[in-house]
């Protein structure tokens, strides 16, 4: 799984991590946003938790009252319609009155998503009813149509809960790390040439480890108040500068996203639907 022939990469799925746990000393990484801090509750009201069988597995963000954007790899081996989306959360495991739990009626993952390379790692979730927008539940904007990805050095923020019940270290609430956009060619070299064009990388900007970790997948990378990335994959050692964190480059998918959302698809994916460009890939 993951780009081959390179570093000890892995999918950012709690399940995948659980399988690989034996290859990583426990407690070294904490399966959460690395080098970050807990945010003020509900200050990132667009954050969604995607849950399967009662477990937080991936992040996402609310784009429209009925649509959440997440990563395709979160759904590659499970039926999205068995998942739930939790909005308005801060501490996931507590019963917060702000939380809204919605079902997923349809998941439209990118038709050109490649599980081995992680290219086009994006999926749109249509909720079974509209979220009630308010102080704790709100929308996050996409990049403008035709916008370029943020320049190298741009300060961005990545958020996630990054916890699973399999591990002891649970974040107290939603966590956030400050990261800086890394030039794609430099990142591609670190990843031994395994990256595709519609990807975006970040680094911590200092010698400390910052970034995302397992189960932050699908969560947004927010740059200048817009969703410019979706957490896709990183190296075995979370926050390791040798394997920079890699995101889906959202700006490459803006027209595809709006095509899907406006079409309001019926249940079932529309593979090869006319007018669905393959991102920038
Ligand atoms: C949406 O799904 C949730 C979770 O399965 C369920 O509790 C709720 O009743 C559903 N709502 C509608 C309008 O179908
Ligand atoms: C990464 O490097 C490989 C090998 O040089 C190249 O084929 C690929 O197109 C590069 N990817 C990007 C996004 O530049």
Automatic annotation (TrEMBL):
Record keyword Disulfide bond present: yes
Cross-referenced Pfam families: Trypsin (PF00089)
InterPro entries: Peptidase_S1_PA, Peptidase_S1_PA_chymotrypsin, Peptidase_S1A, Trypsin_dom, TRYPSIN_HIS
Signal peptide feature range: 1-30
CDD domains named in the record: Tryp_SPc (cd00190)
Annotated protein name in UniProt: Serine protease 57-like
Keywords tagged on the record: Disulfide bond, Signal
Domain Peptidase S1 positions: 33-262
Organism the protein comes from: Ceratotherium simum simum (Southern white rhinoceros)
PANTHER family for the chain: KALLIKREIN-RELATED, SERINE PROTEASE 57
Domain of life per record: Eukaryota
């Amino acid at each position: 799984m993951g780009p081959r022939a390179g570093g000890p990469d892995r999918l950012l799925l709690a399940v995948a991590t659980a399988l690989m746990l034996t290859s990583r000393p426990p407690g070294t990484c904490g399966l959460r946003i690395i080098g970050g801090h807990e945010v003020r509750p509900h200050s990132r009201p667009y954050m969604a938790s995607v849950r399967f069988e009662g477990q937080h597995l991936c992040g996402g963000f609310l784009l429209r009252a009925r649509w959440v954007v997440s990563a395709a790899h979160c759904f590659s081996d499970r039926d999205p319609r068995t998942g739930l989306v939790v909005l308005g959360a801060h501490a996931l495991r507590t019963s917060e009155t702000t939380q809204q739990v919605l079902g997923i009626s349809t998941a439209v993952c990118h038709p050109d998503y490649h599980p081995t390379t992680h290219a086009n790692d994006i999926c749109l979730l249509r909720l079974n009813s509209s979220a009630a927008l308010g102080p704790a539940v709100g929308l996050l904007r996409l990049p403008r149509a035709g916008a370029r990805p943020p320049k190298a050095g741009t300060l961005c923020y990545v958020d996630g809960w990054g916890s699973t019940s399999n591990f002891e270290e649970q974040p107290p609430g939603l966590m956030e790390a400050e990261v800086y956009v890394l030039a794609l060619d430099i990142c591609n070299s670190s990843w031994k040439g395994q990256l595709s064009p519609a990807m975006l990388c970040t680094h911590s900007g200092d010698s400390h480890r910052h970034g995302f970790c397992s189960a932050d997948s699908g969560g947004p990378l927010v740059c200048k108040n817009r969703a410019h990335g979706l957490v896709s994959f990183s190296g075995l050692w979370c926050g390791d500068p040798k394997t920079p964190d890699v995101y889906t480059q959202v700006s490459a998918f803006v027209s595809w996203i709006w095509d899907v959302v406006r079409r309001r698809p019926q249940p079932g994916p529309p593979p090869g639907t006319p007018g669905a460009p393959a991102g920038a890939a």
